Sequence to fold (375 residues):
Amino acid sequence: HLEIRPEATSLSGLSGEANLAYRRGRHWRANAVLGTTTPGYEINDFGFQSRGDRIDPSIGGTYLENRPGPLLRQYYVGWTLRQEWNYAGDLVQRSIFLNSGAQRTNYWNHSFNFGATLPSMDDRLTRGGPIAERPWNWRLFAGTGTDYRKPVTAFVGAYGQWGEGGSWIRRLFSEFAVKPSPTWNMSFGPSFSRSFSLAQFRGSVPDPTTTRTFGRRYLFSEIEQSTLSLDTRINLTLTPDLSLQVFAQPFVASGDYGEVAELAAPRTYTFLVYGRDRGEVESIERGVRVFPDGRGGVAAPFEVRESDFSVRSLRGNAVVRWEWRPGSTLFVAWQQTRSDFENIGDFVFRRDQRAIWSARPDNVFVVKLNYWLNP
Fold:
């Protein structure tokens, strides 16, 4: 939170963290962390700052065993408790995490994590508007990886999250790698996720008649999303002085928005759907017109544009590195990008992958030369 000062020309603040770690014997580890970023701290002119206005204490512990046994070479079990407040005194995060991992005697690795977020406040949901409620959710992760020493390796993981109101996330991801010789290797990592959110922010409109949310209506919709990607890497060493690296990432994502709703009141997670819970809705070209109090009501009507999307893209890079004399290196790089967008919200694999290859490519070639004057 920040007080509005129209005459201000600068911001000032601080960010810091204190960490206390404890270790006992071979097995026990514990730590406590207290971090803070004041509301006036802002460094985006120098880099990237994702958040501020936070007081963030956490405490955790781990039991670790590194001595091989008859079944496991090593394992660990840990926990973390975390809370966050903003400088207005609102509790904006309460979470508990349980994590575990083990390596078997055949060098296969397994991990299992559990997390839960307890009800608190959300000062980001309305993008600078009134604070809302953050509902509970819980999540699970499980993953298995084969022996990393082998010429063929694999990792497979699954993640699930479930929340109040029916929100959910389901994600499958993996990586498969082939290392047939010291001179070349290849890996590819497909991932697929689907999610449903009860409250995707759509924007806000001014309305002096809505005093409960301070003169603006904060608009939300349900959204169902699907995402598919495939990361592919190839590393080839032709000679000690000549190598080739290739990376490609096809990516497809779609989002299907539901009916338009508004936040009912601050400090709630309740949404009033237009045309059902209040007001009327009229279909227009590529969107809807909303009458918040019905036709002829006091509140002025407004329009919400259609936001369904299907995004397809491809990023590819190839880099040749040649050290043609000691300390002197030539780099030749080629990058190709393709992108396509449509206002459709359903996920159809064949249609979307064809759209990637029919999109117009952008190609960039770069040549870089390093020369050592006195090798």
Summary: The helical segments are 349-358. The two ends are 58 Å apart (CA to CA). The CA atoms of residues 127 and 201 lie 8 Å apart.
